[in-house]
């Protein structure tokens, strides 16, 4: 399954997760060993410095000096090859050596120098496909440092190049990158659709192992997809079924939600929340995700009733009536759950929103705004 060229794994996107694991647990020796092995192997002085700052480590000056010297020698050798190619070889050879330098700098974790080297290589590059590969390299660097500013500029650039001449494989790779990026910035609606669109064609193993990618797709889809689509697009998907035993709490959550087993849903959601808190892409959104999933479950169960007692609903979720009262009161007040609560009788009454009336009111409001703008424009023209 994994047939990518070695350069596609530059930089190694498992290292930032190891760093995040160390931030959560300073005693994680496996994560520490992984980082230090990569630092020594690839001369990752800039990344090592970044790690020391994040974790409050004292940098090993001798290690830094040794790696810096080795890096300088490596880059000097590549520069010599570039100079020689410019004298006696063609543009293709020059570009190949420049790309080597860019890859070497990215492998070292030098963000600024890497971007400069990639841009220099882009100037020597002809063809949308090869340019896309360089933009993907930038995108991986952005994902490595989770640099949202860089990613926000790079991915639209990749989309433009894909429109001009990207092949099928590169277009699919772009959608996978966009899926992960949108997930990391809490754009779950876009992310969910992108994950679904790339399930059957996923080959971007540099981003994540296949099972991890499918798990992200299930997590996003469980929140965003209508219930009727959960079975067709996720539960019965051959790709999801192929890794069903590796999905853990995400798979349990999906099945519990679809089958309306709300007590199991809450157990799975609690477990998934803990997992998301340990994921570097999702940790900032874990509480938000869990809250939105609870809102989804509350609305789903209330659509089945005109009224239901607080005790009955609490029993279905496996919690106390006080918890349900507190939760629903908050979500009703913010307009996220459509019901009213009779605290005296302990009864919840559903209040289904009138979508046609809401659309009518919205149309009238927009019409008034349009008329006001037309009137202002007519006064300007008359003057």
TrEMBL record:
It comes from the Eukaryota. Keywords: Proteasome. GO terms for cellular component: proteasome complex. Pfam families: PCI, RPN7, RPN7_PSMD6_C. The keyword Coiled coil does not apply. It comes from Thecamonas trahens ATCC 50062. This is 26S proteasome non-ATPase regulatory subunit 6. InterPro entries: PCI_dom, Rpn7/CSN1, Rpn7_N, RPN7_PSMD6_C, WH_DNA-bd_sf. Residues 187-355 form the PCI domain. One of its GO terms (biological process) is proteasome-mediated ubiquitin-dependent protein catabolic process. Coiled coil: none annotated.
């Amino acid at each position: 399954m994994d047939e990518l060229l070695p350069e596609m794994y530059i930089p190694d996107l498992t290292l930032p997760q190891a760093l995040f694991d160390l931030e959560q647990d300073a005693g994680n020796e496996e994560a520490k060993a992984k980082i230090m092995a990569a630092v020594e192997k690839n001369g990752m002085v800039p990344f090592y410095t970044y790690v020391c700052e994040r974790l409050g480590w004292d940098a090993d000056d001798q290690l830094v000096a040794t790696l810096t010297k080795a890096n300088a020698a490596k880059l000097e050798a590549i520069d010599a090859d570039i100079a020689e190619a410019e004298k006696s070889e063609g543009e293709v050879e020059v570009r190949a050596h420049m790309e080597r330098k860019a890859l070497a700098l990215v492998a070292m974790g030098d963000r600024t120098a890497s971007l400069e080297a990639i841009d220099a290589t882009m100037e020597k590059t002809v063809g949308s496909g090869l340019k896309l590969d360089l933009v993907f390299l930038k995108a991986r660097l952005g994902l490595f440092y989770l640099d949202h500013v860089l990613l926000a500029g790079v991915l639209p650039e990749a989309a433009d190049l894909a429109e001009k001449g990207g092949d099928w494989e590169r277009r699919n790779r772009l959608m996978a990158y966009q899926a992960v990026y949108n997930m990391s910035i809490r754009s779950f609606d876009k992310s969910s659709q992108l994950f679904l669109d790339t399930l059957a064609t996923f080959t971007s193993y540099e981003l994540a192992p296949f099972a991890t990618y499918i798990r992200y797709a299930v997590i996003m889809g469980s929140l965003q997809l209508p219930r009727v689509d959960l079975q067709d697009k996720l539960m019965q998907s051959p790709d999801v079924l192929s890794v069903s035993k590796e999905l853990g709490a995400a798979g349990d959550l999906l099945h519990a939600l679809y089958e309306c087993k709300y007590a199991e849903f809450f157990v799975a959601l609690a477990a998934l929340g803990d997992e998301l808190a340990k994921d570097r892409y999702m940790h900032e959104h874990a509480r938000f995700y869990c809250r939105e999933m609870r809102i989804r479950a509350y609305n789903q169960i209330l659509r089945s009733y005109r009224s239901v007692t607080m005790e009955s609903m609490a029993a279905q979720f496996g919690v106390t009536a006080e918890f349900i009262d507190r939760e629903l009161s908050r979500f009703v007040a913010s307009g996220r759950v459509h019901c009213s609560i009779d605290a005296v009788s302990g009864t919840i009454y559903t209040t289904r929103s009138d979508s046609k009336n809401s659309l009518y009111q919205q149309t009238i409001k927009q019409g008034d705004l349009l008329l006001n703008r037309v009137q202002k424009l007519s006064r300007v023209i008359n003057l």
